[in-house]
Amino acid sequence: MAARLIASITDVAERQLCAGCGACAFAQPDVVQMVDDLDQGRRPLVKMVDGVEAPTEAALAVCPGIGVAHEDGPTDGLIPALRNTWGPVLEVWEGWAGDHDVRVAGSSGGAATALAIHCLEHEGMHGALHIRGRADVPYLNETVLSTTPEEVAAATGSRYAPASPCDGLDKVVSAPAPCVFIGKPCDVAATAKARRRDPALDRNLGLTIGIFCAGTPTTRGTLEMLEVMGVDPADLTGVRYRGDGWPGQAIATTSKPSESPPALSYEESWGAILQRHRQWRCYVCADHTGEIADIAVGDPWYREIEEGEPGRSLIVVRTERGRRIMHAAVASGAIVAEVVDPQLLPASQPGLERVRGSVGGRITSLRLLGLPAPRFEGMPTVAAWWGALDVRGKLRSTVGTISRVRRKQLRRRRPVVPYRPKGQHD
After folding, report:
1. Angle at the Cα of 209 from the Cα atoms of 208 and 215, rounded to 5 degrees
2. Are 94 and 338 in contact (CB under 8 A)?
3. Spatial separation of the C-alpha atoms in residues 321 and 51, rounded to whole Å
4. pLDDT means per 10 residues in the chain (426 residues)?
5. How far apart are alpha carbons 114 and 382 in whole angstroms?
6. Taking a C-beta distance cutoff of 8 angstroms, is the pair 366, 358 a contact?
7. What does the alpha-carbon distance between residue 38 and residue 277 come to, in Å, rounded to a whole number?
8. What pLDDT score does 3 carry?
9. pTM for the complete prediction?
10. How far apart are CA 51 and CA 54, in angstroms?
11. Is the Cα torsion angle 201, 206, 211, 212 positive or negative in sign?
12. Cis peptide before 247 (omega within 30 of 0)
């Protein structure tokens, strides 16, 4: 049933399976264009030719929205106890950026930024492909290839808003030397699919860094957050969702004079507002910790954070390439870190195994209802549903999905509606 429902990139978008990564636009740039949709996220628009939608087979082949799979690879050194829930893990580190300014500005300890800067300064890499806030519309994102440490550092901090970093993979292909890629787990998974089909991209991906992710809020979420802050988006000159402290505040800067910029705590912004606006694909995602990346970075939430404590990062090394670069970054001083007990990974994400179990229940329910759902190879979801959830959790993940199908109108197609910020013109 799902195969009949998903035959094109437009099907992926309109059936709410799109992750918004932008890989489809990289695969077929003459056919697919990424746009912002206020209530869905970054979404693809497919070119019409003589009144008929252009074929998108190549774009569909790199889409993580319909499925993600682990490649068969070396298993030597992997930690068996973590494999089924946390993916390939060689080492777990805890630490922070050696540059104090990067550490403070980062969402946790600035490790992703520090690793990227290390690669530029010591590994001979040309740049880092990542996202930053747009200068003209600060609550929207853009993909950039930063080629200096200063450019990389200028984009520190999480962006809890739609982003499509894979639409810039052509910049990696044309770069004169390998590059770093930084993105959410779905972005890294899409990049892995793309590199298997594009030898030039594969050669120029020097390191992939995945950011732990609990889901992508839509632009509507950011606008609601700004409304609660009392900020008119037209006056906005910048917005930070975290950072400048751990976990930091959401802070809006505006063109209007103010003694202090409007701000909300992490709990007030993410907890009360943004997470309610996550796209549907995030509710059926099995990978929240960047399992396909060379290195994944997140928060060490295994303990309470003291007031005024500087940020720390949990750094998960997943591949031999990641291990080599991580050890070199520590040796160069780019990162201050130590290897820690691997069990700090599940301790830092205590509910994630139950989340994977809930995903298994949701996916099974969707298929029984004749609706499309993503496939995850090497990421056991049904086993997690059986083993990690109690009876109540099993019922909530299955019966609750029926309610979500109605509430989120999953039986209806949702055409992409390009969003144009107020006052913006072509």
Report:
1. 125
2. yes
3. 47
4. 75 97 98 97 95 96 96 86 94 97 92 98 98 96 98 94 98 98 98 98 98 96 97 95 90 89 95 97 97 97 88 97 98 98 95 92 96 95 92 93 92 96 64
5. 37
6. no
7. 11
8. 46
9. 0.96
10. 9
11. positive
12. yes
Q: How far apart are CA 63 and CA 12, in angstroms?
A: 9
Q: At what angle do helices 352-368 and 391-407 cross, to 10 degrees?
A: 50
In angstroms, the first-to-last Cα distance of the chain is: 40
Three-state DSSP state, 395: helix
Q: Is residue 418 within 8 Å of 35, Cβ to Cβ?
A: yes
The CA distance from 207 to 295, in Å, is 8
Q: Considering only CA atoms, which of 149, 128, 158, 106 is closest in space to residue 336? A: 106
Q: What is the Rg, in whole angstroms, of the alpha carbon atoms belonging to the chain?
A: 21
* Residue 208, φ and ψ in degrees, nearest 5: -115, 130
Alpha carbons 193 and 65: distance in angstroms, whole number: 12
Rounded Cα gap, residues 392 and 72, in angstroms: 35
* Residue from 250, 265, 216, 312 nearest 20 by CA: 216
145: part of which helix (H) or strand (E)? strand 141-146
Residue 68, SS3 per DSSP:
strand
DSSP category for residue 34: E
DSSP state of 175: S
What stretches of 144-208 show up as alpha helix (H) in DSSP? 149-153, 169-173, 185-197, 199-204
Report the C-alpha gap between 137 and 161 in whole angstroms: 12
Residue 54 token pair: 């252009």
194, 201, 162: which is closest to 179 by C-alpha?
Answer: 201
- Structure tokens belonging to residue 404: 């979500």
